[in-house]
Amino acid sequence: MSAPTRRERLRAATLCEIKNGARRLLVTGGVEAVSLRAIARDMGMTAPAIYRYFPNLEGLVGALTGDLYDELRAVSEAARDTAGDDPVDQLTAMCRAMRRWAVAHPAEFTLIFGNPVPGVATFTDACADAEHPGARLGAVFLAPFLALTRDGALPGPPADALRQQLGCHLAPLTTKHGDLPIEVAYAFLSAWTRLYGLVAMEVFGHLAWAVDSPEALFETELAALFAPLRGTPGTGPPTGNGDGPPAGSARH
Question: Which PANTHER family match (predicted)?
Fold first, then answer.
């Protein structure tokens, strides 16, 4: 592969600068504050010049959304890679990493997981394409469940019961991943919805009425969520400060 030309390098740098400008506006004013005109003004460009890089605002926001999925995926993979070989330890580390990222970047979290932006693919729509950054993020969280299945360590309802109750309803997920076993699909989806619910309620400020430490609640729920995968019945709060797996792990 030949090295990029000077023109290509300059174009790539300008694309990055435009997206960085869009992210700054997103953080300070929400998605409503993001406009091609404002970005052009900040960059010292004319508004029409930006259209050489993005056809419209929706295209820019879509590109930024893809970058944010990639950023969260990289954060999750880094956490997984420091957690050792145990799939449950990996899941625990990735869930904590996702929460930390979301709390530190509420505007970005809202863009990719919150209210749909007109003209920009939602997370649900994005995951229909296995190569979309949103789908690649989901695949990182799915992989440990597949590993648990290979190890014969994935508890849960019997597959026959799941097929009877949810078989046709989980087809969008099971068929997308090459006929994913229904017990894996259910375990993954059950964990993902609980993770997203906890993180979203904290980011959107919907827990302040009930708890003064969302992290403590998150850690307690994380221990309860993954206790069956560890082969332990306990669901009490874990010890420590959230930097490692809950105490009492039985799967090693």
Answer: HTH-TYPE TRANSCRIPTIONAL REGULATOR RUTR (PTHR30055), HTH-TYPE TRANSCRIPTIONAL REGULATOR RV1816 (PTHR30055:SF243)
